Amino acid sequence: MNPTYQYDIHFPANMDPDKRYPAIFTLHGKGSNERNMFGLVEPLVDEFIIVGIRGNLTLGAGFQYYELKSLGNPIREMFDQAVEQLEAFIHYATEKYPIDAAKRYLLGFSQGAILSMTMALTMGDALKGIVALNGYVPEFVKTEYTLKSIQDVAVFISHGEFDSVFPIRIGHETADYMGSLTSRLTFNVYPTDHGVSELNQRDFVKWLKQVNE
């Protein structure tokens, strides 16, 4: 299989050839790229395989995974295809590299957070956990997708208190929705706009280490 997506991969130093490792798949925001996400998870590179997935559609000098009709309103066909292709990519990477299928995590920002939460809902416990930074779950995913149980999936959601793209109300609504489906939810608000603060990063790095123990 040729993967749909270009990607950047980082391995722990001194890997044991007989061991499979937990993996974090990162999904960037609209107009960004996979390298911009690596800095967020670089503190974890000695414990996890890090796979940065680049959106397959260009947007200016960056990339995206799907296009929008309007803000907060994905083009449904493109979104559906992205979810399907990303799941196929995760399976591809798990087979190609020494990734522990029981310890796969998604970490996404903005568009990447939207996809991370959607994929948790469609893949269920095929994922061990997700980190969703400043995103939401599209209404059509909640009402029209075939959803799997995420009761055993650990979920870290954070949102900027002053987010000018997705207002904080959306963060609270998203946390309420995901929290109704899993008891393993952590939800934090940070005094930021549409971005990731150093405290936010420290908190999810610590959370990932704890969840992965």
From TrEMBL:
It holds the Pfam family Abhydrolase_2. Residues 22-201 form the Phospholipase/carboxylesterase/thioesterase domain. GO terms for molecular function: hydrolase activity. Keywords: Hydrolase. The keyword Hydrolase applies. It comes from the Bacteria. Belongs to the AB hydrolase superfamily. AB hydrolase 2 family. This is Dienelactone hydrolase family protein.
